[in-house]
Amino acid sequence: MHGLGFEQEVPPVKPKSSSTAGLFLASAQRLLAKQHLPIIEKCLHQLSEKEIWWRPNAASNSAGNLVLHLCGNVRQWIVSGLGGAEDRRDRDSEFEERGPISRKVLVARLRATVREACRALARLPEDSLSRKHNIQGFHVTGLYAAFHVTEHFAYHSGQIIYITKLKRAHDLKFTRLPAIKKEADKNRAGL
Hints:
With 191 residues, this protein is mostly helical. It has a single domain (20-189), classed as dinb family like domain (Four Helix Bundle (Hemerythrin (Met), subunit A), Up-down Bundle), CATH 1.20.120. It contains seven helices and two strands. It has helices at 20-46, 49-52, 63-80, 91-96, 103-123, 142-168, 179-189, and strands spanning 132-135, 138-141. It has a two-stranded antiparallel ribbon with strand order 1-2. Strand 1 (132-135) and strand 2 (138-141) form a beta hairpin. Helix 3 packs parallel to helix 5. The two termini are 31 Å apart. Residues 1-8 have low confidence and may be disordered.
């Protein structure tokens, strides 16, 4: 995902070391900043301002609510929980919002949050992954917190993709298999 303007805002993700902990922290940064964030941005740019706040029913969330929720979760678990910033999250407001917060503002908030999280993860001492942290009432290791945020981000990215597919009714072309995989499939099929 290139051309969305985010690449220059986050420094290149490089592991602090080749240790498993360093590689994990670099992977968490890469997943947030280079994989999931650009997909969410692309989805938001395909939706109208009104569609960003569309919800299929009262029990479901809009893409806008999901973006606010991701900002709250990432900030609480990584920026505050692991990075030490003050936790000022108001989780209920993430879901109560009905918009219209503009696409531009949502994208800016999500970019800023991911940027702060990547900085916090880059500064995190590797031994912090094995230490316990109190986050959102849970007593968890730093490893659990970083893993939770990356999988949570992926989960809600998928929901935003689904909303976008519902509204656009076409393949968003986010999945591209490596050429090597395609050749292996042809070989197995005897082609």
